[in-house]
From TrEMBL:
Pfam families: V-set. InterPro entries: Ig-like_dom (IPR007110), Ig-like_dom_sf (IPR036179), Ig-like_fold (IPR013783), Ig_sub (IPR003599), Ig_V-set (IPR013106), IgHV (IPR050199). This is Ig-like domain-containing protein. Transmembrane segments: none annotated. GO terms for cellular component: extracellular region; immunoglobulin complex. It comes from Eleutherodactylus coqui.
């Protein structure tokens, strides 16, 4: 089953990103690749990122990739195991996850960055209730 994830940012028009909603069960030490397709905007002009949501509802940034694929940034816990890539000609972004660990259990979301920053630093996004 495919679904649509709408990313809404205050003051910014929503952009549509499509990724699978089917749960995936992966054994520790194995690999999995997550795809994400962008629609309705100039995909190749924006940074793309990946965020994960743990069972307690905490959202944590895990990686970013610039439009030309020349710069990628990763949260320390996934460095050397996860790789972010993109295919601008097909409006696709990917998250290759290798050597999976139990603490990688989460819901994963792709997101388009709204701003290009010179120095991307890992950050945590907290939900307001």
């Amino acid at each position: 089953m495919d679904g649509t994830l709408f990313c809404v940012f205050p003051g910014v028009q929503s952009q549509r990103l499509v990724q699978s909603l089917d749960p995936v069960v992966i054994k520790p030490g194995t690999s999995h690749k997550l795809p994400c397709q962008g629609f309705d905007y100039n995909f190749s002009g924006y940074w793309m990122g990946w965020v994960r949501e743990t069972s307690d509802g905490r959202l944590t940034w895990i990686s970013n990739i610039d439009p030309s694929e020349s710069s990628t940034y990763y949260q320390d816990s996934v460095k050397g195991r996860f790789t972010t890539s993109r295919d601008n000609s097909n409006n696709m972004a990917y998250l290759q996850m290798n050597n999976m660990k139990p603490e990688d259990t989460a819901k994963y979301y792709c997101a388009r960055d709204t701003l290009i920053q010179d120095n991307k630093q890992p950050h945590t996004i907290t939900q307001s209730h």
